[in-house]
Structures are given as structure tokens and as C-alpha cells.
Amino acid sequence: MKSNKFLRTVLILLILALNIGCDQVSKSIVRQKMTYFTYLGYLGNHVTLSKVENTGAFLSMGDTLPHPVKIVLLNLLPLLVVVIGLVFILTKHNLDRVISFGLILVIGGGIGNLYDRIMHGSVTDFMHINFVVFQTGIFNVADLSISTGVCIMLVQAYLTRKNGTEVSDLSQES
Q: pLDDT tens-digit profile of 36-58?
């Protein structure tokens, strides 16, 4: 039993490290290799890369807030949420594996963007998708991780509710 808990913890930390590593490597490449106002287009310019430093949150919300308010809302509050999430995922051993994976993606993406805000004063965004009926703002790997994690958890919650089972009924003892 202790071996399973240890293995679970190692797996969680490994997925987190890979998640954060992919995010930070991609941002580092963009910071080093791309200049501002340079656009690289792929798939007929439906997917573009361009370097943007975001000093706010999602879609630059909060960018114009006073500095002390930004510190609390964009650094301290997310740090608290990430720490609580990390403690939760590491100590709650009976979570559904799919929910756990989604939560790990959210925590990893949160850590990646929080690291940028603390170390660089802004978050490096660089990807944009435009398929006419579907268009995004400019985002990064951490944002993609957070969005994917939330979608995974929502779909899993929907499926468990649709099937008339609770998430705890599906949990795997670790």
C-alpha cells in the first residue's frame, strides 16, 4: 500500500515536471529566437506564432490594475491556489485517475505561468489559432494545459453524472 502511494506521488510529480518543463522550454525558445511583431504562419496562417509579453492574466485582463493589486491578484492568490491544489492532489489518494490527471494539468499550467510572472514580470504568450468560426487569443503551453485540464475534468464529471455514478465510486485506491 505504501509502495502504491509512493509510486502515485512520483508519477504526479513527474507529470507536473514534464508539464512545467514543456511550458518553460517553449517560452524560453520564443524569448530567445523570436522578436516582437514577427509572425510565423502555419496551416495556411490558421495557426500563427508571435511573441507577446502579457503583464495581466487571461487575455490581458488586469493589465491596467495598480501594481500592489496585481501582486495580490496575479501572484499571491494564484500561488495560494496552486499550493492548495498540490497539497490536495498529493494527499487525496482516492481521486478518480482522470480527474487527477486533469487537476495535475491545471496545477502545472498554473505553476508555469506563475513562474513567469514572478521571474520575468510577465507571461510569454505566442500561439494564436484562427479557423474563422473558432478563434483564440494569444496563449502559451501553460494556458493550453490549464484549458485541457479543465475540459478533462468537466467531461469526466459530465460522464459520471450521466452514468449515474459519483466520481468517488470510480476512484482507484492507490
A: 988 899 999 999 999 999 988 77
